[in-house]
Amino acid sequence: GNMKGKDEDNKDKKKMNARMSSSSSSSSSSSDSDEQSLSEGEIAALKEQVEEKKKLIATLRNKPWRMKKRLLLLKEAQEFVEKFEGALGKGKGKRLYAFKVMMTKKRIKFNRDFENFKTACIPWERKIKEVESHFGSSVASYFLFLRWMYGLNLVLFGFMFGLVVLPEVLMGFPYGSIPRKTVPRDEQDTAMDFSDLFNFGGYFKYSILFYGYYNNDRTIGLLQYRLPLSYLLTSVGIFGYSLLVVIRKMARNANEGGDGGEEREFIFSWKMFTSWDYLIGNPETADNKYASITTSFKESIVDVMENQKEENIHLRRFLRVFANFLILCTLGGSGYLIYFVVKRSQEFARMDPKTLTWLENNEVELVMSLLGLVCPPLFETIAELEDYHPRIALKWQLGRIFALFLGNLYTFLFAIFDEVTGKDFVKLIVSDIQVTYLTILVGDFGRAFIVRFLNYCWCWDLEAGFPSYAEFDTSGNVLGLVFNQGMIWMGAFYAPGVVGINVLQLLTSMYYQSWAVMACNVPHERVFKASRSNNFYMGLLLLVLFLSLLPVVYSMMTLAPSFDCGPFSGQEKMYDVVIETIDQDLPAFIGNIFTYATNPGLIMPAILLMILAIYYLITVSKAYQQANTDLKKKMQMAREDEKNRRNNKDSTNQVMKDLEDLLPNKSLAPPPTEEEKPPEIRIDKSSKQTKTKPSTAGKGVNVQKEVSLVAPNPRRAVTRVPGPRGGPHGNMRSLQPEPGRGQGAAPRR
């Protein structure tokens, strides 16, 4: 009997399952049929739901929900989109919509992959991020600047090589065909000596590296290429392109977010809860990110401490004046030393070169390199007396080193125009590279090697005391780049091959210095944050560009070119090749236009108009900046007032405070009082319910209709006959009825 009952139960379960499966299949088929028979309104509603699900998928990361809820909603939204996105429409419309959806997905994927590809193509991005994570944004800003300079010089090299060097090699006279391209007989025996090649003499002197190798024929080759005109216009175009790129970079930096020193709200909260990148999957990258977040906290702490620091202002002013006096004495001494060396070099130039030693031949370059090596650390030591914020101290350091390099640069220019040949731009650049690399190898690597391996057997702690590990000199390296680029801009006209040498120098510097900073240097004791919109580097570079342009323009417009070498030999002035091309190759009206355009009567008003336009734009910019500052102050005051109203505090608005002072109670609003509990009011059954306005909720203000003010009726059993009605005990304001008068009695006269 038990077995039969179990069999019957199993049969019933099978029947129920069959019914459930049939009902589910019928429901699915009905749903499919419903999808096929949707009306236009339902299709529009379905499309709207699909778009809402897509929007939810895109903004789900910003929702303040738990991760479990996010994943559940994301899965549901994705399934809904996949189910109904391609199923909308009928016939060809359905297939067209599905095709559009497919193409949209492919386009989105292609754009994402292309952005990833562009990011991967950025040179040295990972290396710079690694440096930033360990040393902060101030050190990383140098490597970003170095990478930008490398890109600029790569474009300049493309211009010079493609428009000047390559046409001369392909269409010009070969080596040895004319005297300017042939090593003299008295120099052929030593033309391959290492000492001559190291000083860019011998065969290097009569190569495409220098100005004198290029042909002065008006046209060369089968294409009738105008090499002298191309040489002049390319040299001018290099300055024009560099000017546009530098100004564009400065404008882009100015358009970015506010200055790094600008105060923001909730700095540490933002850093604590929003700094981590949850897409990191590499342990090494995670370590770098952890170090970067730690460094950013240190930077922010330093900023806050600097803003809250109290100091003796008189002592601080005295120390800063004394520090500037010492730095001025150092600059004056370096200027006198350069003047003395230049005078000695002029005397050596009149002597027989064979009687001079290597030190006497290279005295100018060595002194200038050593001054650039010794003075920046000395300036940094003196700057400790000033105790500026690290960001401000860096700007002062850059300005002082820039003044030193500027004096070196123009002293070198005076030497060029007097005694030194063009046998010196390349020598100065190469000697600067050698001094820089030797300084890193001996000063940083050797110092770190001694501290690392001799600290255990030394008398004192080498790591904490002298010599300790070296810090990366950001200001000195930046000014070295700026000074080197100024030499490139000037030397590109006299030595076209110097641009290619500089590209190789910047390429090797990126790898060499990034290795040195990670292996030999330690982070600064006072870690600080570099401003994103800081145009100080670009401002110095723009000034160096202008100062480098002056001697080149002076050479083009004033000095007579060499009569036996160079593309302008045989001309009275270098710019005569432009006038010759206009007169012989262009129509007459273009020559007239050029003549009128170069008339001083038109140039001076044009310059005046440009100055007025610049002045107007500067004025408008200052007005906009002031308006933005006022708006920020108003927004800050509004936020503070809102906080104070919520916290029941006095207002911070000065106008409201002045109005409050005029009143007797010194306040426009009543003082905050504790809310009393309203008395319990019993509502009669015959009356309506009490209604409360939403705006007065929580303030004890009730708006009532037909409210009964009778005493509350005690809910207890009646045990005796009620007596005459009387007022409540102790209520003196209520009227007591007289004897014999009831509720309906007539009043007594």
TrEMBL record:
InterPro entries listed in its UniProt record: TMC (IPR038900), TMC_dom (IPR012496)
Highest taxon listed in the record's lineage: Eukaryota
Protein topology in the membrane: Multi-pass membrane protein
Spans through the membrane: 197-214, 229-247, 321-342, 397-417, 487-508, 536-554, 602-624
Start and end residues of each TMC domain: 419-531
Locations listed in the record: Membrane
Biased composition (Basic and acidic residues): 1-12, 635-649, 674-687
Residue ranges of the region described as Disordered: 1-42, 635-749
Keywords: Membrane, Transmembrane, Transmembrane helix
Skewed-composition ranges (Low complexity): 21-31
Principal subcellular localisation of the protein: membrane
Pfam families reported for this sequence: TMC
Recorded family membership: Belongs to the TMC family.
Protein name (Swiss-Prot/TrEMBL): Transmembrane channel-like protein
The species this protein was found in: Xenoophorus captivus
